[in-house]
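REQUEST ID: PR-0412
SUBMITTED BY: lab tech R.K.
PRIORITY: routine
TASK: structure prediction, single protein chain
INPUT:
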Amino acid sequence: MSGTDSSQQRRKRKRMLRSYSQAKHYLSLRRPLILCFSFFIFLLLLSSERFRPASFRPVLTASTTTLSLLSSTASNSILESFTNKNSNTRDSSPLRVQDRILFPDHVLLIVPNRFRQNDQLECVYHRLSNGSDELQDGEKNPHLDFAIRPVLSTDVYDELRSIARCPLPSNNYSEAVDLRRRGGGYDWPAGINGTAYPWDRVVYEAVIDGDTAVVFVKGLNLRPHKKSDPTRLTCHFGLANNGNWEKDQGFVLTTEAVTAAQEVVRCLLPRTIRNNPDKTHGVRVTIGYNTGSARAPVHVTLPSVAIIYSTKSTVRNENQKKKHELCACTMLWNQAPALKEWVMYHAWLGVERWFIYDNNSDDGIEDVVQELELQAYNVSRQSWPWIKTQEAGFSRCALRARDECHWVGFFDVDEFFYFPRAFRHHRGDGVPGENSLRNLVSNYSYSPSIGEIRTDCHSFGPSGLSSHPSRGVTVGYTCRLQSPERHKSIVRADLLDVTLLNVVHHFRLGQGFRHLNVPENVAVINHYKYQVWETFKAKFFRRVATYVVDWQEDQNQGSKDRAPGLGTEAIEPPNWRLRFCEVWDTGLKDYVLGYFADPATGSLPWEKSLL
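STATUS: complete
OUTPUT:
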């Protein structure tokens, strides 16, 4: 009886295998039809019009290498993105990692949805098999060995995506880190992509600007502070892979790069996207370049996590209220305690809008921004997880602010504008100096030639203090160097060069426009650069500018960016509190205490808390 059953089972398995083979052969014959149909759907989603003749036609290529770099097997397609956007159950969707980037001190995970408010997340690390670089097959090993560690931090990145930072994996564990909710189960994800792109070679951001896409790139190694030749670069636009395509097949649209400078490449949009910018949701963008010899060039396409999710930041609404006269943009890391004083003080000088680019802070800056918003300050915080990209971040902020602001100031939260003449000479009723900065720039809002206003910086030292001044830097630090160091700029964002090239302190302007230097007796910037050691030593651990060497590296020790006499270790030098003190300057302190302090309590506005 058992022999008969075994024989029947063998015949049944043979019939199943024969049916599977026939189905597989059937699908292989029709694979070209399926691919053609998929590409037709891609074009249909991007365009509702027929192609029309134009001077430039984007090149259509079917790329095998490019697609695998353009997209991750865990990514969303355009159609899926639209579905997710309109779904009411997005909060309960699985924690599916879309992309990963390997930084020197953590792994950044990009997730194509928003985390729930009370989510407690854990990082999941997969053990490598036999010490190799390949993951164990979850189907063959249902009891896959994996390790769990708590996330370092989470954040909202853009309208639809969230980010999580995980510790670096231990030896014998893959960089393809996953996420799960604490206490929950974990299923081996089907078709897992074991790729974590290295941070020094990846396309990390893209945004549509008119008929071009502005793309932000690490790894091109273009010359600092100079324009570069864009003709050796190519731009590629494609569907983010939904996990169902074979990873060695797919279609992309290729166009030319029209400008390139530092980490910013401007790409001509494919015609279908130019005609229908609102339908670009979910398109992934990357940059390619030729390497090798002239006779045998090799085209290389960079990995990319840059996906266009929204165009609203650069498409101005005709019904939008008139622009702010003056805005401010800054990039910071762990400077939450300084933010209130900086915002409240410059609001008095006429700044109406603030753009805060947060470079991985973990000191509670979200609470400070929330408190400022409750007090009617127009402050927005943008998570900017890309380390050492201050110049690129300022280029991105210039694009964002252009449609909201006439003038945008780019300066740090330890830099405060001071107007010696306006503050000292009281004219009429009220507080002297109100709206001084806004009045200064508005005088040139309709200038046919002025596109940037530069103001010199005076660098202040610890001023004899050993601990951070509790009432703020404007009151606490009063001794500075005699001569100014460098300058900072306020620009007309609509008059910048198309490359968006900047060196942090100033931008390259469009042809025909120039900058104006403000005389020191009219305005200066008090730069509280050399603060008490406990605050100052943070500069050793993170420099946000791209082309400024981290102070722990033994390079450029004579640079003006470094503090004179310091080495490469965060060791407090003798008499630090007495250094950088050549001129006692209490002008701004006297002004703040005289006009900002509460008459009854003596407290300053930024000393109070609503939360």
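NOTES: The two ends are 79 Å apart (CA to CA).
REVIEWED BY: pending
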